[in-house]
Amino acid sequence: MVFVALVGVLGGLGLLGGKWVASMADAAVNRLGSITGDGQAAAPVEAEPEPEPDPEPDPDAVPALDTVLLKRYDLAAAAAAAQGIELSITSGARSINEQKAEFEEAVGIYGSAEEAAKWVATPETSAHVRGAALDVGPQAGWEWLGQHQSEYGLCLVYANEPWHFEALTEPGEACPPLKADARG
Questions:
Q1: Alpha helices (H) in the chain, listed in sequence order
Q2: Residue 58's CB: how many other CB atoms inside 10 A?
Q3: Which CATH number characterizes residue 125's domain?
Q4: Higher pLDDT, 163 or 1
Q5: Comparing C-alpha atoms, which of 100, 142, 137 is closest to residue 121?
């Protein structure tokens, strides 16, 4: 308010230009929330509210497939088709609850969580839950993609899951070594 008064006094004495004085006074008062140069009440500038914390993820929400992963798959599927090889997505993005159900089913099949974890990742570690993995088929398709994985940057991840691919490198670069199983 002192600034506004000082600008007004200096302007009134002809020491500052009229338009400049009015605009500076208006700006200062508007920021402080008082009266503008034309006598109208000005609303105070509200402080930005604190951002809301990220909500817990919806366990039933299926994430979108990663666009890079999907584009690379489309290129690979077209190349495979040109060679007479069928390549299709058998599983892609999964919700937390879908992955949890898959893991629990694997526990029933393999008898323990430790043994199931060799074949099915938990929701906390699954790339499917992040939309970052594809399972492909049929067998001729996954075999073809396994042979051409580095061309498309679609890499096999697990030695015991020849149908599971993730976009881990740039096309043309070597894929990383295989992990033994879903436990990493």
A1: 2-12, 18-32, 67-82, 96-110, 113-116, 139-147, 149-152
A2: 10
A3: 3.30.1380.10
A4: 163
A5: 100
Q: Of 20 and 176, which is predicted with more confidence?
A: 176
Task: Supply the pTM of this predicted model.
Answer: 0.69
Question: Alpha carbon of 95 to those of 22, 48, 101, 164, 180: distances in Å?
Answer: 58, 34, 10, 17, 25
pLDDT, tens only, 76-127: 999 999 999 999 999 999 999 999 999 999 999 999 999 999 999 999 999 9
Residues 72 and 162 in one domain: yes
Give how many domains the chain has, as a whole number. 2
Kindly state whether residue 152 falls inside one of the protein's structural domains.
yes
Domain limits at 14?
Answer: 1-47
Tell me the C-alpha distance between 37 and 136, whole Å: 69
